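User: For a reading group we're discussing how well predicted structures match intuition. Take Mos1 transposase HTH domain-containing protein. Before you show the prediction, I'll give you the sequence so everyone sees exactly what went in.
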Amino acid sequence: MDSSRSAQRAVLQFPPAEAEHVSQIYRRMKKVYGEQCLARCTIFRWCQHCEAGRVNIKVWPRPGQAHVMTNTATVSAVDELIRQNRRLTTREIAVEQSISKGTVHYLIHKKLGYVNVCAKWVPKHLSENKKTVRMGVCLTQQFLHRNHPFPSYALESVYQCQWR
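Assistant: Thanks. Here is the predicted 3D structure of Mos1 transposase HTH domain-containing protein, as structure tokens, for the group to look at:
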């Protein structure tokens, strides 16, 4: 026996037409469906809908903000806006694209991989060029440190003094 919500809702459409009281309907449904039966308040609410003339058993759309599906066009449009002006706020992007701030935040951080540093959107991950440049700087510093004329204990004291 199908004990899904839609099956139980379909069963509920017939008894109100027979002028049966809602509490009797609930007892019968509880006997038939057992633990899988809907809550008493749900059965009462659905019976009220049936008495009011609602014949469709599908769920009606609920009020509230509609969910916007993010597609590749939206993602690329947000990415283009950020590339044009890296100092845009999420609110400005949301107004420009007519989407919610939460969606913009999700797109920027999760899909595009940007982080906000000093009020400027920058890529979270370094490109290969940037990695190579950083590696070169590190190797240069390491080379300078090894070939420095001062003994290592003198350099340690100099570095400690700079951080105080």
